[in-house]
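Example (one chain per record):
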Amino acid sequence: MFDQTNNNRYFTASPGTYDVTAGRIFMRQVFSWMTLAMVVTAITAYLFASEPSLVMSLRNAETGGMTILGWIVTLAPIGFVLLMSFGFERLSPAVLTLLFVTFSVLMGMSLSFILLVYTMASVFKTFLVTALMFGVMAITGYTTKTDLTRFGSIMMMGLIGLVIAMLVNMFLQSGTMDYIISIIGVLIFTGLTAYDVQRLKNMSAQIGTAGEANAKKLSIMGALTLYLDFINLFIFLLRFLGDRK
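Predicted structure:
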């Protein structure tokens, strides 16, 4: 996940140079990029789920398992996130934009399996609930005067524990543990949404000192962070609200 501390070197101006207007523009750009990614992902997921030939390119019809392309599509987004995060300084805004859009397409291909397992009505219902929760927490993070830094650190530690628990349960196959993991996942990504929005808001106060190119790249990385919060919250909620076909 994108770490703001990796970019603190761009923000060395004194408080007197804060550009409120530039900060608001930055936040609008972040949410615009995120919205674009969500639309691309949704369209791609629908196209793959509704076209049998595309589905079969990801899933073996005989065994029910994933094809080589299916595994690539499933694992590639992780590589894209790492590439965008660690290559932030070297990548140009155009290349970072291309990677972000491609990442959105790959996520749509990967999430198309959801539409094959759950009913369209329950997926749409879960999406609306996710959007509502995300919106409430985003507003909370943007407007609250409380410093969420310590809270965010706790959430990040919880996220690490969540990943470990999910890996362990891959072997245990415990339904009870899976239910607990889902509850914790919803709580963690609900909290991270508020924390990440506040972090981006604080960062945006000095965005005018970063330069146009770096400001665009930071807006894309900020969008990636919120996109991942939304998608993960959606997936964990779907375990509760989704109706299987």
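Caption: The CA atoms of residues 28 and 219 lie 9 Å apart.
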